[in-house]
Design goal:
InterPro entries: Peripla_BP_I, SBP_2_dom, TAT_signal. With about 325 residues, the chain is of the alpha/beta class. It has helices at about 10-25, 55-70, 85-95, 115-120, 150-170, 185-200, 220-230, 245-255, 275-280, 295-305, 330; strands at about 25-30, 45-50, 75-80, 100-105, 125-130, 145, 175-180, 205-215, 240, 265-270, 285-290, 315, 320-325.
Amino acid sequence: MLNRRGFLTAAVGVAAASGLAACAKEDDSSSGSDSGSGGGGKKITLGFAQVGSESGWRTANTKSVKAAAKEAGYTLKFSDAQQKQENQISAIRSYIAQKVNVIAFSPVVVTGWDAVLKEAKTAKIPVILTDRSIETSDDSLYVSFIGSDFTDEGRRAARMLEKVLAKAGHKGAVKIAQLEGTTGAAPAIERAKGFKEVMDAEHKDDWKVVVSQTGDFTRAGGKQVMAAFLQSNPDINVLYAHNDDMALGAIQSIEAAGKKPGKDILIVSVDGVKDGFVAMSEGKINAIVECNPLLGPQLMDLVKKVNDGETVERRIKTEEGDFMQDEAKAALPDRKY
Ligand code: AHR
């Protein structure tokens, strides 16, 4: 593998590695025997640049990646970019300098990756996108993208809202507050797009997004932004949150404002983490669109194939379900994250 790679200057390597140490949290875990490459060959080293630890979804995703790498017997170099693109770029540069076999990452935002991915390509290190996609003019900069269809999740959220409104017997104007994910991130852009698509096509007269702002996919962000929404638009009757954590934060602000989440304000969110299901079983969230974070095992299979030089699928979609409030209690014990 080493002889297939291009040469990086020591200066670039040192700068990249020290940049990473300064900005991101990194940990290395070696595990298993040397059978990680499957054929008794050299153990695979995977560099994984994670977004951060902003949500329950992300925590579950990180656990899944770490456990699956251990199970596969790979050496995993893992970094947490704390939701900053510059940290992820430094991590990827560090993995290039360390000559890992494969790089995988969940891009914080969609744009701005071409330069560093060209460096990986020059070094002949294949790159796999996990969870989130990127915008690039050069499709050869990554080999595969494994993750959810976020636009479809947005459409599914709108469909769930139709059901929630019908179940609540709601009549009249639907005044929607939207808590967006991280600005510029694929799930924020695409979940808004898919939802709007259904709304514009079928509910132009009765549904309106009256206020929409980022809560950065965090509980604290959801709480803070929802409090501001309730001040500026006290007649909001629906919340569409791009993830459960923001919905959970928003619930605190709704209750602090003397309103009942799930009744005065109907709530649809995305992810399906355990805490979201608990809130749903308590009647505080009305419906959840599932987004599966357990990508580790599929990613490790893909890493092996890529490392072995096999042709892999360009796009691998995750399978997911949708849940209404009355399904929450029964589904809760089986939630894996
Ligand atoms: O990219 C997936 C999204 O990122 C999840 O929906 C959200 O919870 C996370 O932070």
